[in-house]
């Protein structure tokens, strides 16, 4: 543990663009490694991109590579050793459940389990410092892009809190497509000691128009939440902000959810098109709410909340209309039957991997090569409950 603490101190004092240099030097000194390579998942979560000022190394696919095996399993992966050659170890870089990438090290001999645990601790410290460093350098953001982002997509990704998060009470994962040209779809979450607030937004329009609208909505909702307003109050403030700006010409559909971490009680405001499905046991059902007006359609709309309860073991999936209204060649919407089949088929995947799996199924459902004609957003939440995770026996 002293070795990890030494690396953490070195990382905190390092220049933002030199974090990998510091980790490399520390691992060479403390663990006698020969080489170190850091790769970050691209925005589409299809490849792992090398972090370097001039990236000369080709990306590797997530779904067919040793690095991808560590990324997917979220466990260190030691490649089979060839003769007396070096030992190659791939270590996931993850912060609070947000899967960022993989650190690869080579050594001259096998590593003990204790060494692997310690090096995994170094990876976690590196991930934390990368999140802080991104305020001051573009190095890590540039490494994530396999191709150029549109300006609208750049704005949307900068709004997001992350791609996944894990707490004892729940785990949550989300993804957007087309990753490099997303328009108006967005998700946001905030966790306190007692609550998880989750919002899923579907902004009207295309391109920059949709991105600007969604930026206004997300920041208005954050402003209202941080001012201490309840869920209907958050919707009302955001509604007023959008109407004041666009006078009803543009509006945004939002589903707002507030989970009580101790009880599983969920407060809901349904202001538009994002919809929710629940997997409980082996059964999948659509969860319907009382639909209210989208934000910004009319002046001073009053919103009311309704309630449901989630149970330990429940999986919730929320999608935008670009998912459930997407049609097959035969004209059937994905949300009619295929989405439930996809959710059931992937019930053993962790929540962080479910959105991508559902979107891959959607692509096949549409005919493989057929491009999406709308943004597609999927959020997956696995609920464990505080009783199951902490031993709290109160209801």
TrEMBL record:
Gene3D superfamilies xref list: PPM-type phosphatase domain
One Pfam annotation, family name? SpoIIE
Instruction: Check the record and name the SMART domains matching this protein.
Output: PP2C_SIG
SUPFAM superfamilies attached to this UniProt entry: PP2C-like (SSF81606)
| Superkingdom as given in the UniProt entry | Bacteria
* Every PPM-type phosphatase domain range: 167-383
Q: Name one GO molecular function term.
A: protein serine/threonine phosphatase activity
EC number(s) stated in the UniProt entry for this protein: 3.1.3.16
* Keyword RNA-binding attributed: no
UniProt keyword terms in alphabetical order: Hydrolase
Q: What is this protein called?
A: PP2C family protein-serine/threonine phosphatase
């Amino acid at each position: 543990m002293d070795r990890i603490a030494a690396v953490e101190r070195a990382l905190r004092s390092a220049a933002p663009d030199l974090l990998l240099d510091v980790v490399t030097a520390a691992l060479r000194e403390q663990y006698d490694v020969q080489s170190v390579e850091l790769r970050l998942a691209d925005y589409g979560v299809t490849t792992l991109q090398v972090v370097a000022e001039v990236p000369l190394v080709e990306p590797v696919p997530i779904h067919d590579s040793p690095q991808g095996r560590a990324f997917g399993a979220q466990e260190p992966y030691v490649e089979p050793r060839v003769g007396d050659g070096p030992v190659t170890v791939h270590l996931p870089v993850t912060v609070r459940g947000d899967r960022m990438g993989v650190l690869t090290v080579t050594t001259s001999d096998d590593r003990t389990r204790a060494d692997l645990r310690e090096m995994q601790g170094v990876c976690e410290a590196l991930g934390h410092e990368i999140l802080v460093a991104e305020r001051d350098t573009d190095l890590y953001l540039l490494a994530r892009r396999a191709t150029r982002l549109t300006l609208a997509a750049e704005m949307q990704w900068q709004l997001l809190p992350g791609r996944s998060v894990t707490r004892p009470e729940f785990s949550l994962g989300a993804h957007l497509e087309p990753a490099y040209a997303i328009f108006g779809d967005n998700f946001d979450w905030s966790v306190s000691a007692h609550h998880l607030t989750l919002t899923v937004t579907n902004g009207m329009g295309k391109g920059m128009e949709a991105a600007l609208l969604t930026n206004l909505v997300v920041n208005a909702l954050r402003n209202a939440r941080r001012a201490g307003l309840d869920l209907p109050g958050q919707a009302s403030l955001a509604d007023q902000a959008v109407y004041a700006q666009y006078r009803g010409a543009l509006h945004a559909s939002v589903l707002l959810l507030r989970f009580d971490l101790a009880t599983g009680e969920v407060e809901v405001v349904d202001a538009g098109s994002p919809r929710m499905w629940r997997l409980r046991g082996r059964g999948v059902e659509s969860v319907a709410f009382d639909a209210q007006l989208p934000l910004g359609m009319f002046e001073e709309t009053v919103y009311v909340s309704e309630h449901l309860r989630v149970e330990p073991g429940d999986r919730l999936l929320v999608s935008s209309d670009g998912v459930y209204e997407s049609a097959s060649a035969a004209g059937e919407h994905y949300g009619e039957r295929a989405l439930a089949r996809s959710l059931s088929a992937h019930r053993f995947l962790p929540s962080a991997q479910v959105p991508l799996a559902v979107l891959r199924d959607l692509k096949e459902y549409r005919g493989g090569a057929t491009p999406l004609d709308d943004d597609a957003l999927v959020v997956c939440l696995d609920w464990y409950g505080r009783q199951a995770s902490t031993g709290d026996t109160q209801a």
